[in-house]
């Protein structure tokens, strides 16, 4: 045996682990279940062949994908990872429908109430405008020809 510890694949297959073992970087000895699942679904020779055909810089991603797909297949032999993909597509469709609904509700509110600037910031009025409109309110007759009641002319409520 070499100076390094055997990988999970070589331990599982009960063979010597060479220093250039294709499985060594991707199936460490401390995670034997990882290789067992992949081996159960794909077989050791197929895994080795796939990894050898892939550029070295992509092999880790490929081994991770093989592990994920094999684990899903072991957990759900009928659907495997397709079940997860389907569930994620359903969640995406629901989120898109919620977005469309929210956008239509926003459009409805904007049609009824106008743009948000009008009711967030309020009308821009100066103190002069406020005092003149206050004076006009109490000095101009209403649509019935009556002057509004000035609250200051009522006196205090304690007198009642």
Outline the fold blueprint:
Elements lengths: L7 H6 L18 H11 L1 H10 L2 H20 L5 H33 L2 H5 L6 H13 L21
Number of strands: 0
Major sheet size, sense and barrel closure = none
Low-confidence stretches: none
Please write the string of helix (H) and strand (E) elements.
Answer: HHHHHHH
State the helix count.
Answer: 7
Percent helix among the residues? 55-70%
- Give the helix/strand class: mainly alpha
Overall radius of gyration: 38 Å
| CA-based shape | rod-shaped
Average pLDDT, rounded to a whole number, is 82
Q: What's the end-to-end separation, in Å? A: 107 Å
Quote the beta fraction: under 5%
Question: How is this structure best described in words?
Answer:
This protein is mostly helical. Among the domains are: about 10-75, no CATH class; about 80-115. About 60% of the residues lie in helices and about 0% in strands. It contains seven helices and no strands. The chain has helices at about 10-15, 30-40, 45-55, 55-75, 80-115, 115-120, 125-140. It is rod-shaped and about 105 Å long. It starts with 7 loop residues before the first helix and ends in a 21-residue tail after the last helix. The mean pLDDT is about 80. This is LOB domain-containing protein. It comes from Chenopodium quinoa.
């Amino acid at each position: 045996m070499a100076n390094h510890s055997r990988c999970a694949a070589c331990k599982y297959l009960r063979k010597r682990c060479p220093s250039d073992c294709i499985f060594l970087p991707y199936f460490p000895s401390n995670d034997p279940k990882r290789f067992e699942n992949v081996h159960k679904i794909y077989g050791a020779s197929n895994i080795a062949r796939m990894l050898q055909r892939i550029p070295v810089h992509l092999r880790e991603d490929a081994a991770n994908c093989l592990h994920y797909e094999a684990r899903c297949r072991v957990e759900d032999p009928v659907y495997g990872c397709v079940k997860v993909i389907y569930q994620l597509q359903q969640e995406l469709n629901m989120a898109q429908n919620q977005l469309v609904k929210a956008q239509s509700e926003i459009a409805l509110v904007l049609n009824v109430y106008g743009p948000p600037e009008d009711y967030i910031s309020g009308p821009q009025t100066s103190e002069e405008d406020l005092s003149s409109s206050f004076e006009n309110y109490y000095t101009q007759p209403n649509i019935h020809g009556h002057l509004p009641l000035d609250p200051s002319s009522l006196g205090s409520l304690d007198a009642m």
